[in-house]
Every structure is written in C-alpha cells, then in structure tokens.
Amino acid sequence: MALENLFSLVKERWKSPAGTVTTEPPVENEKPVDKPKPSPTFKCPRCMQVTPAEVYADNLKVCPACNYHGRMSAKERLNIFVDGGTFSEFDKDMRSLNPIDFPGYDEKMGALREKTGLVDAIITGTASIHSIPFVIGIMDSNFMMASMGSVVGEKITRAFEYAETHKLPLVMFTASGGARMQEGIISLMQMAKTSAAAARLSEAGGLFISVLTDPTTGGVEASFASLGDIIIAEPKVLIGFAGRRVIEGTIKQHLPEDFQSAEFQLEHGFVDMITERKALRRTIRHILRLHGFGGDKIA
User: Fold this and answer.
1) Does pTM surpass 0.90?
2) Per 3-state DSSP, what percentage of the chain is helix, strand, and coil (rounded to 5)?
3) What's the number of domains the chain is made of?
4) Average pLDDT, integer, range 90-118
C-alpha cells in the first residue's frame, strides 16, 4: 500500500474531521467484569520461590525471598502511591479504531477491555502525593503487555503537555513490551511523538520522573521512558530494548547474564537510583520537595 493511501486510511479511521483523536462514550448497562479466581500461591519468576498469594499481596507484590518486585495493575499502583480520592483521569474513553485493519484486532481489544476493566494499556491524570499535585501516568502490562499504540502514545503526549501548561511535575510508571505491531507504522510514530513531548517539557523547565517497572522494553524504553530528568527503577526488574539473542547475534559477543537488570543499568549509569516499592512514595515526595513543589521546606 502506498504511503499516501496509508495516511489517508489513518485519517479516515482514527481522526475526527477536526484532526483530534476520537473517543467513544462509555457503554451503558455494560456487563460486570468476570475476574478469574486468584491462584493460592505465587511462584517468583526470578528465584522460583513459591509464596502464599496472601503473603505476596500483603508484601506489595514483592517476593520475600529475593526482593523481585512483581507486576502490579495500574489501579493497584494508584491505591498505594497517590493520596486517596485525588486521582482525576484524563481521556478515560479514548480508544483506537484499528487504523490499519489488522485482522482480529478489534475482537482482541474487546476481550481485553472486558477482562481488565481498562480501555487501553495506560491511565493518565492528575493526583496528589502528600498534598503535592502532579501529573501521573501508569502503564498496565495486563493489557496487551502495555504495548504502545496510537492511544497509549497520545495519552502520554497529552500528559506531558498538561504538565507543561499547568507547570506540574510528571511521574510516569512504565511497563511495556514496546510498540504495538497491530497498528504498524502508526505505533512506531509514537516513539517520536512522546519523545518530542518530553523534550518540550524539559525545555519549559518542567520535571519528569520516569519510574521503570517490570518489564520496560522495546520502543517505550527507547523513547520517553529513558528521557526522565530522574530515572528510578524498582529492584530486579527487566530493562532493555531488544532481546538477548537478537543483540548477541548482531554484535557477535556474549553478554553478561544480568545485563538487562535494573542493578546492571544502575551500575552503568542508565538508572539514577533503585528504590523499593515500599519507599517509592516517600522518595518521590522528597524529590518533588527538593525541586520546589509543595512548599520550600522539606519535612
């Protein structure tokens, strides 16, 4: 298909006549989500230790044996990170309309929306932490491995723009497998768009804190996630672009076993700090105060 025809199709399917991303109203009388029953145990993917699910949950989804910080849903992160009742969501009903007619994409998205209760792989909005207002974005790996398609990229870009306009700090929790292949080149374009939005916030003197969670890979890691003014990672999480076999096959060298771990990234200067989940709220509050948000004094 010629490039002109591709962009014509995208404009017709994904854009409104005014050139803005279309949204759909919430469905009335929608059936309640049937959530699967949780497993009685959790097996750590790092150390293979089996832990009772209740103990794992009470420990903020952190393995008590090796301190691996497991994957959390966006709603779970909101509950432990922001002040209660302060989150106000942006673009709640924004959804993609299958811009390149990828077979089965609509059905897969519908099934995931019913299963997760999310419209797409990220939630964005405003909230407060210790009464300090800020903009927040949380990617959710339960939704198509938090791959970045047109809606995810647009919501991230709008979060940056809102932070710039309202002079608020931005905290973004990343967790992604990279670009969303079902949206083709449209997905790859989000890398440039989100990176440009991050650059504009930086040029305006704004503060962007990037929090890397398990896993942060592919086009997300290669774009806005690595552009934070301060980059924080949770312990033992996977951070990288391509997979081990691809990299070793390209450079014809053997890589260290832990080369895509948060600890390796910290040692080599890619990450500024590693912070445990239980201390993350306090740490980010301290950073915000150091940068003049929420008053001059640091309590």
Assistant:
1) no
2) 40, 20, 40
3) 2
4) 95
